[in-house]
């Protein structure tokens, strides 16, 4: 069996994972996708190979898998039985927030985890859960290298004017700045564009990562210039349950006049707003598209309106646009959303090919369109595996005296 790399993406009650084989110096082959869900409630581990064949589907009592470390142990037990008893040679982790200090994937040690834990208030839905399996592996398998891959890293290097808020500069030096997120997705799209449309890859591209968490990014010459998300994952587009851009005065009003405490306000902004709050029905776009309720229609109209609005902002940041890319769950699978977004962007010269859009083809703009429009499935896990392999290679080539230092 080839050496393997495990990629994890951990949530509050689940761990998604993928396993990749290292088949050459720089080549990776995906072997399986899986997840363990219902941790501490109804734990269930399932995994399929790349052909869709079921490899495991097993459930346990809640007490048997009551924590992320226990869930991770079940995953590793399954993987070892599947790959001949050996452990993966490395584990790559998605870590949502890297703060101002981390612009590259990095080898993990306990000190790094402690530093990253301080960023939990900036990503309360993700950061602590991202770090839980890292701590478990450090404790149980300290010999296995782990690499942290940050969703903020791709946005490091923005023009300084793009990363500042209009607050005293000393606060920016303390780390209160616009970071941007979904960077692993945008980095993958930038690399994929270089393969699919090299004439576009170096040009000015707006990428819309539309999922339960949603954001947009201006990419010029393969580099991020600006993003709709900022200090946390709350800013920018309305999302499944997050409000997106909101007047800070609303938050002050909720605190002073509605009597919310900070904890209640955090829960409200992360879990009760967005498409769920606007529709009063659901945060699932599929459900809203099939509903005849006018509030469901309004929630989607608002979502599309804000996508178009932020497109104008990002086009301004680049001084023009050559291509628009839809990606992530909604972007890849909701032709009706793509169509209504494109209608609002006709002023840019974007014109869809209706048949190509309905079929979910890769290029969905018409030959007459002045702006190329693509649907490109994202692959954050492959991006993490690539980064993990690169860090491994760099580590193995580090001179002994540097390793000892």
Structure description:
The structure is a single chain. The protein is an alpha/beta fold. It is built from 17 helices and 13 strands. The chain is globular and about 60 Å long. The model is unreliable at 398-405 (pLDDT under 50).
Q: Which strand order does the major sheet show?
A: 5-4-3-2-1-6-8-7
- The run of helices and strands is EEEEEHEEHHEHHHHEEEHHHHHEHHHEHH
> Which runs of at least 5 residues are low in confidence (pLDDT < 50)?
398-405
Number of helices: 17
Write down the Rg: 22 Å
Please report the total strand number as a whole number.
13
Shape: globular
Quick summary:
By secondary structure, the chain is of the alpha/beta class. Helices cover 40% and strands 19% of the residues.
Keywords:
single chain; 405 residues; alpha/beta; Nucleotidyltransferase, domain 5; 2 domains; 8-stranded mixed sheet; 5-stranded mixed sheet; 17 helices; 13 strands; globular; disordered C terminus
